[in-house]
Amino acid sequence: MSRVYLAINEKANKTWAIKEIRRESILGKELVRERLLAETELLKNLSHPRLPSIVDVIDKRGHFLIVMDYIEGNSLQEILDKEGAQSQEQVISWGKELCEVLSYLHQREPAIIYRDMKPSNIMVQPDKSLKLIDFGTAREIRETYGRDDTICLGTPGYAAPEQWGGCGQTDVRTDIYCLGAVLYYLITGQDPGKEPYGIHPIRRFRPELSAGLEEIIRKCTQKDPEERFQSCQDLCYALEHYEEMDILWREKQKNRLRIFLFTLLLTFLCFSIAFYGWNREQKLKMDTYQAWMERACSAREMEEKLSAYEKAISLNPCREDGYLELLNQVFLAVGKDGTVTFTCQEDEELRRILNQMTSDGRTFEMCLKENREGYERFAYELGLAYYYDYEREGSKNYAVKWLNIAAESEILPEMSRDRALRLGTIGTYYSQIGQVNRAGDEKVSYEDYWEDLTKLSSGNLVQLDNAVTALRMYQELASQIYGRTLEFRQAGISGEELKEQLEKIEKHLREDFTNTDWDGPGLKEMRNRLTYLIKEARHQVQIVYEGETYGVCGTIIRNIS
C-alpha cells in the first residue's frame, strides 16, 4: 500500500516514521489513499501505549504522507524466522499484552475490530513490549452493517472464517480467532498458512507444553464464533490462569474416561442382557425343537409325524436332521408290502416345505444352504431317494440336481461323492441321450453313452461302495443292453462287446459278493432279477446281431420297437 521512511527532526532530535503512497500504484492510488485516510482517522482518536501515535498528515502537491511514531525493534515475524518457536512464558506474556490492546479497541464507541492480527503486524520493542501496527483493515462496528462482510480481508491462516465475504459478520470474536492463530504460530513455530495447514493441537509438536494453553488456543480458533471466548477479557483471564485450566483439562479427561468406562459398562450390561435373552430364546427354541422331533418319532400316524417334523423344521430351518428324519421316517418309510415308494404326492409335500418362507424373506432351502455340510448330506439322501424310490421305479431326471450337489461336495465321505457322481452321470445321460441340437446333431451319442456306462460299472463295486449300489449299477448296465441293443449296434458297438459286459457282471456276482452281502433286505430278489435280466439281454443281443442272417431281423426289430 505504501512506502515507509525513517525521518529525523534535527531540531528536536527525534525520529519519526512517514508513510507515503507508492508513486507506481497509479491505478489504485485513490483506493490506497482512502484506506490510509481511514487508518489515520482511526489512529488519531486512539491513545494507548501499545498503539502508534499520529503526529501529522500531509496531503499536498500530489503527495499523501502520514507522520507517526517510529517504533524501534523487530516484528514478531522476524523473531520467529530467526529464533523459531518461543517459550511458553513469553508467549503467554505477549498474549496478555495483545488482549489488553484489543480490549481497548473493542471497548471504544463504536467498537473497533482490527481484523489483521499476524506476526508481521506486531512489533517487539527493545524492552520486549509489543506495539500493534498497520490498521489498514480495521473498521468500526456499525449496526447498519448487513449480516455478512461484503469483501474478503485478512491473511490466510490467521483470518477467521467469517472474514471471507459472505461467510458471516466480523466482530470482536474475529480478533480473538486471529490472536489464537498468532499464539499458535508463536508457541509451535508452525505457520497456520503453510503446511501442515490449519490449527492443530500444540502438544502434537511440543508435548511438554501446557494442556491448559492448548485448550485456550483450541477455543480461540473454533470455526463457530459462539464456541470461542466471547471477549478479550475472558481470554486474558484464561491466560492468567492457564495452570488452573491444566487441572480442569485433566478433570475433563478424567470425566471423559469415566463417561467412556460407564458407557462401556452400560454397553456390556446391555449386551449381556441381550445375549442372555437371546441365549434363553435359543434354548427355548432348541427344547421346543427337540420336543417336536421326539413327538414325530413316537407318532404312529404318518400325518402326525409329518406335522411334527414340519413344526420342528420351522423352528430351526438351518438344521439338517429335521429334513433327513422327515425324508427317511415319513417319505421313505417301508410300506405294508415291504417296499419303499417315494410318491409324487410326497415329493410335492417336500417341495412345499423347502419353499416355505421365513420372517426375513428366505426359503427354508436357502436357510439349509447356510449349513453347508447339512445341505450336502440332505442333497445326497434326497438324490438317492429320487434315483431309486420315486414312484417305485425311480426318477433319474429328478435325482440329477441333488446328486450333482453331493458329487461336488468337499465335506461328504469320498465313497458317497463317488456314488453320487456315478448315479448323477447316468441320470444326466437319460435326460440328454437321443436329443439333437438346432444343428441336427445328437447332444450325446450312444457310443459315448456306452463308454461311460461301462466305466461306471467297472471294478469291484461292492468294495468301492456297497452291495445294493453294485446290484443297481449292474442291473442298470444289463437293462440298457437289453433295451437299447439296436441303438448300440447302430452306434457301432459290436455284439461281442455287449456279451463281454454281461459276462463281467456274472463274474462280479460270483466273485465279489460274499455270503453276508446277500443278507440285506431284498438283496436275494435283486440278484435273481439281475440273473434273469442278463439271460434276456444275452438273448436280445443274439436276435439283433444274428437275426439278419436268418432274414427275420426286420420283423423282430419292429416287435422290439
Write the layout of secondary structure elements.
Layout: E1 2-9, E2 14-21, H1 29-44, E3 54-60, E4 63-69, E5 74-75, H2 76-83, H3 88-106, E6 112-113, E7 122-124, E8 130-132, E9 139-140, H4 172-188, H5 211-220, H6 232-240, H7 242-298, H8 302-315, H9 321-331, H10 344-354, H11 364-370, H12 372-389, H13 396-407, H14 414-432, H15 446-456, H16 461-464, H17 467-483, H18 485-490, H19 495-511, H20 523-546, H21 553-560
Antiparallel strand pairs: 1-2, 2-4, 3-4, 5-7, 6-9, 7-8
State the separation between the terminal residues, measured CA to CA: 113 Å
Strand line-up of the largest beta sheet: 1-2-4-3
How helix-rich are the residues, as a percent range?
A: 55-70%
Q: Count of helices?
A: 21
Structural class: alpha+beta
What composes the largest sheet?
4 strands, antiparallel
- What is the mean predicted local confidence, pLDDT? 83
Amount of beta strand: 5-15%
Shape: elongated
Spell the H/E element sequence.
EEHEEEHHEEEEHHHHHHHHHHHHHHHHHH
Query: Unreliable segments (pLDDT under 50, ≥5 consecutive)?
Result: 144-148, 548-561
Radius of gyration equals 50 Å
What is the number of E strands?
9
Describe it for me?
The structure is a single chain. The protein has 561 residues and is of the alpha+beta class. Helices cover 56% and strands 7% of the residues. It is built from 21 helices and 9 strands. Residues 144-148 and 548-561 have low confidence and may be disordered.
List keywords for this structure.
9 strands; 21 helices; alpha+beta; elongated; 561 residues; disordered C terminus; three-stranded antiparallel beta sheet
